[in-house]
């Protein structure tokens, strides 16, 4: 995917009343600064998403600490904008954390950033913003909006259009992504020029509500022990026992609990997870290959469902997992869905992940066509 040059020509925007979600990091801080510089009436808000926030973050792990809130407040003071902290902890727990735990218990591999964007930032927060008279919600996401159409960011390595593809046409119409036209190193340089103290603050990594980075322990404490077997796909032989399917994801190679390697010495991978029986099946890399994907909860970014099959590129993970494909809208038992025929096989496609569809555009940057939640792959 070719990296695009930043757009240096800008048309002055009409003055808008903008609420900026400020995490306390460099990206949202520069987004707020740019919104102010563009002449908008800007207010900053930090979302308190934890019922028991830590005083300090641990390096680059986690977010939403009191330190992050203080950093956001200092930036708002420097910019001369009003700043508030809004408590969304209960909503975040219900719509993000609880859903994340339930999905893993069901043998799925969810991405909590998708749920947070869909249900918290661009639903609950955006709805409150509109009720208070704001015209738009701005965030520090790396993505671009072109006449209401969602496109990849200029910085391909930081692009976050994948986790924003769950937004519908109405939500995109109220969104602003001020930094999507600039590579991350330049964002840090800009923050330094502006005198923002967060210019060199480490980025958040891993899952924000699991600051230890130990997802298996986090899930185990909430799901409990649910024993099952690890079996070989080809022979059906039981190779090991486990404490719960929540400790596994499709494509996983390490931590399988298998004492001996395969007879031919080749690595084993998780190829299937059955939460009903607790069976985790392992096989070869070739066993991971899929040629078709079924997805539910279809969202079409333009607000219009394509009349028929569409040639596109599908992405099945936040970073990687791309293939040329033909996507066809369908009406399934669970509502609008998408059937995706892959032109090249993909590996490691897991239920619960998002399948995001792009229309390649070498000039303007890939356009997001829509997305769906992966329910099956074959």
TrEMBL record:
<feature type="site" description="Interaction with tRNA">
    <location>
        <position position="353"/>
    </location>
</feature>
<comment type="similarity">
    <text>Belongs to the MnmA/TRMU family.</text>
</comment>
<keyword id="KW-0067">ATP-binding</keyword>
<dbReference type="InterPro" id="IPR014729">
    <property type="entry name" value="Rossmann-like_a/b/a_fold"/>
</dbReference>
<keyword id="KW-0819">tRNA processing</keyword>
<feature type="domain" description="tRNA-specific 2-thiouridylase MnmA-like central">
    <location>
        <begin position="216"/>
        <end position="283"/>
    </location>
</feature>
<dbReference type="InterPro" id="IPR046885">
    <property type="entry name" value="MnmA-like_C"/>
</dbReference>
<dbReference type="Pfam" id="PF03054">
    <property type="entry name" value="tRNA_Me_trans"/>
</dbReference>
<keyword id="KW-0808">Transferase</keyword>
<feature type="binding site">
    <location>
        <begin position="21"/>
        <end position="28"/>
    </location>
    <ligand>
        <name>ATP</name>
    </ligand>
</feature>
<dbReference type="Pfam" id="PF20259">
    <property type="entry name" value="tRNA_Me_trans_M"/>
</dbReference>
<keyword id="KW-0963">Cytoplasm</keyword>
<keyword id="KW-1015">Disulfide bond</keyword>
<keyword id="KW-0694">RNA-binding</keyword>
<protein>
    <recommendedName>
        <fullName>tRNA-specific 2-thiouridylase MnmA</fullName>
        <ecNumber>2.8.1.13</ecNumber>
    </recommendedName>
</protein>
<feature type="binding site">
    <location>
        <position position="47"/>
    </location>
    <ligand>
        <name>ATP</name>
    </ligand>
</feature>
<dbReference type="InterPro" id="IPR023382">
    <property type="entry name" value="MnmA-like_central_sf"/>
</dbReference>
<keyword id="KW-0547">Nucleotide-binding</keyword>
<dbReference type="InterPro" id="IPR004506">
    <property type="entry name" value="MnmA-like"/>
</dbReference>
<feature type="active site" description="Cysteine persulfide intermediate">
    <location>
        <position position="208"/>
    </location>
</feature>
<feature type="site" description="Interaction with tRNA">
    <location>
        <position position="141"/>
    </location>
</feature>
<keyword id="KW-0820">tRNA-binding</keyword>
<feature type="region of interest" description="Interaction with tRNA">
    <location>
        <begin position="158"/>
        <end position="160"/>
    </location>
</feature>
<dbReference type="Pfam" id="PF20258">
    <property type="entry name" value="tRNA_Me_trans_C"/>
</dbReference>
<feature type="binding site">
    <location>
        <position position="140"/>
    </location>
    <ligand>
        <name>ATP</name>
    </ligand>
</feature>
<feature type="domain" description="tRNA-specific 2-thiouridylase MnmA-like C-terminal">
    <location>
        <begin position="291"/>
        <end position="374"/>
    </location>
</feature>
<comment type="function">
    <text>Catalyzes the 2-thiolation of uridine at the wobble position (U34) of tRNA, leading to the formation of s(2)U34.</text>
</comment>
<dbReference type="InterPro" id="IPR046884">
    <property type="entry name" value="MnmA-like_central"/>
</dbReference>
<feature type="active site" description="Nucleophile">
    <location>
        <position position="116"/>
    </location>
</feature>
